[in-house]
Amino acid sequence: MSLSESEQTATYASGTDDLRADQLGLAFIRAKNDAPVEWWYYNGHLQSGSDRYSFHTAFFRFNATGFSIGRVLPLRLLGTEIGFGHVSLTDYQQRRTHFSHRRVFGWQVDSGPNDVDLKLKDMSLVVEQDRHRLAANAADCTLNLEMVPSKPIARYGPDGLFGHLLPRRSHHVSYSRMSVSGSIEIEGATRNVDGTAWLDREYGEIGPDPTVAGWIWMSIQLDNDCELMIYHIHRRDQPSTCARAAIIFPDGKVRLIDEQHIQLRTLREFRSELSQAVYPVASQVTVTDPVDGVRWELTVDADFDSCEFDTRGTTSTFYWEGGASVTGSIGGVVVAGKAFMELVGFARQTRLGQFEHARKNLPLISCLANEIRLRVSDCTNQIHDHR
User: 242: domain CATH number?
Assistant: First the structure.
């Protein structure tokens, strides 16, 4: 796979050149109710004095058309739209991750011409011009954060249209660096925090094809004000992988990188006691800029290994999601930074080759069990310790 010269540096699509940066961002971030699938995803690194934390939140909306329970009961009878929400907060001092997920049938998303207003049970997101206000609960924790983009929105292809290395097409954009301020509450104790965040926004025909087993995704924020995003997709029962990356420069320009210029090598693994999945939690990342030949050689290593989440009852998979530290060099110049990793499809119970069929044909017994889980509390909570 190779990228044309016009694809290597994303430019504003026709009809958007006259929009201010905040208007352009809202044009992509507003709800797209005609899209089969869409999501809003944030991750971030926080500090309160010398204490460190990380978080991730995700709002998912699926159109229920084509979904069924027990292969016979159309899921749209419960609502034409399904909403899922995931929240995690990792406390590095206590070596503990707090996670919760929830589901809503018939979830309606609100977006006016100048704002975004999402409410999903105990999660909410309000975007007005350049301010993103997030409130969410994760087990016995609460996040109240305000995020402001430090760069223009990054688009991965013309008009954000990104093939994901899969047959289906989606619009994919990011705010690759956002300043964060606000507070978190852990077990009744409130802490003021600040830090940096990343927003990923996708909508369209999103979903794996039957050959895809899973992926490694990384969002990397370096101290030199550059960012790097990487997708590394592995296929079921095949040694081959596919990859794509994007460099976001300090001025906000985006350069797309194809797979021949990307290498990932696993340095360290973590085995989950819950699913027995083995996750590559530390990797050597090598990316060569095809324009100037500069080599990016980075080591990405998880800050806390026990970050696997069981989302049966919402998005029906096990996945690993957490913060990481970055060291390395660009063109021989030493750099450092922070990252987030998402590792999907490593648990045998929820390999993505079967995920699409299972998601659209929910077994009746499993559906009832998941419903009981979610009815016991308003959302399902998980806490992971590693001492």
Answer: 2.40.370.10
